[in-house]
């Protein structure tokens, strides 16, 4: 179902899963627990790569391959509106807490951003110069992006084999050290509640994660590509559901793999955290709300969430099952799935 080429993956706070099925010009959506797509978005899309879903379940999809724009599909709408006009595909999309939309322009070697609070098509370059390079101010074929609540921009600088961090308002990035681990074509990146990085190391066929004791491999750690349940083949993107389970777009195998968070051991406390909105006269702030139980994971969900994606808070000893479960394969998501997103309701969205 996921086709031969899928890219962006997103899981929202309802555990809805979204996947960009690039080869079939569509976005696939699975509600929590579903094994077949609950919804398909396809009107007017051309090879979508990146996608992002907001807390009110609006879907932002890259439509830049030939259409040079980003489209917004309102929740339960049958049509879209264009929210950004750019000059190429967005391999990664992100919306920060200030309602700024970021587009990772792989072919242009830069990140652009536009406020969604205005209808004017005014965007600024926030990272990269438009020329490929490996200096602090340049990027080279970057893919995934993530913006934390301090507005630091993290970039999977793919062809430079590094992760770059750009402080808010700064055009010179710093390379995030990964200890003894050498990255080879990193494509996907996500942070947890404590700011620890999780990286899709594409041509090492694995996912690595950081923690209080440094970086380690956390999924597909054999060092070789393959199609077994413990292996990946050129993975592209990842996302967490509200239980801390990890979803990986295993692009080369044309499938989405789910690696379960191990919660039945004596490895410490794992707490799952969501963000609740606290509105004052001058600002809206995100305040963590979490629960913890020994050896298990649990989630406290507030009545109003300001973030649409899951920010799990893991223990220092958190581990995931060494064998992944195939949720969807090429029969469902076609031959070219790229973008994947799981919202906070655990609904899965896919760009195909």
Task: Provide the descriptors you would attach to this structure in a database record.
globular, 4-stranded antiparallel beta sheet, 1% helix, single chain, 352 residues, 46% strand, Neuraminidase, mainly beta
Would you give an account of this structure?
This protein has 352 residues and is mainly β. The chain has a single domain (5-266, 321-351), classed as Neuraminidase (6 Propeller), CATH 2.120.10. The chain is 1% helix and 46% strand. The protein is built from one helix and 27 strands. The protein has one helix at residues 330-333, and strands at residues 5-21, 26-30, 39-41, 51-53, 59-63, 69-73, 80-85, 92-95, 100-105, 110-115, 124-127, 145-147, 153-157, 162-166, 174-175, 186-191, 197-201, 206-211, 214-219, 237-240, 246-250, 255-259, 269-279, 284-294, 311-313, 325-329, 336-351. Strands 4-5-6-7 form a four-stranded antiparallel β-sheet, with no helix packed on it. A four-stranded antiparallel β-sheet has the order 8-9-10-11, with no helix packed on it. A hairpin with a 5-residue loop joins strand 5 (59-63) and strand 6. It starts with a strand and ends with a strand.
Q: Layout of SSEs?
A:
Layout: E1 5-21, E2 26-30, E3 39-41, E4 51-53, E5 59-63, E6 69-73, E7 80-85, E8 92-95, E9 100-105, E10 110-115, E11 124-127, E12 145-147, E13 153-157, E14 162-166, E15 174-175, E16 186-191, E17 197-201, E18 206-211, E19 214-219, E20 237-240, E21 246-250, E22 255-259, E23 269-279, E24 284-294, E25 311-313, E26 325-329, H1 330-333, E27 336-351
Parallel strand pairs: 1-27
Antiparallel strand pairs: 1-2, 2-27, 4-5, 5-6, 6-7, 8-9, 9-10, 10-11, 12-13, 13-14, 14-15, 16-17, 17-18, 18-19, 20-21, 21-22, 22-26, 23-24, 23-25
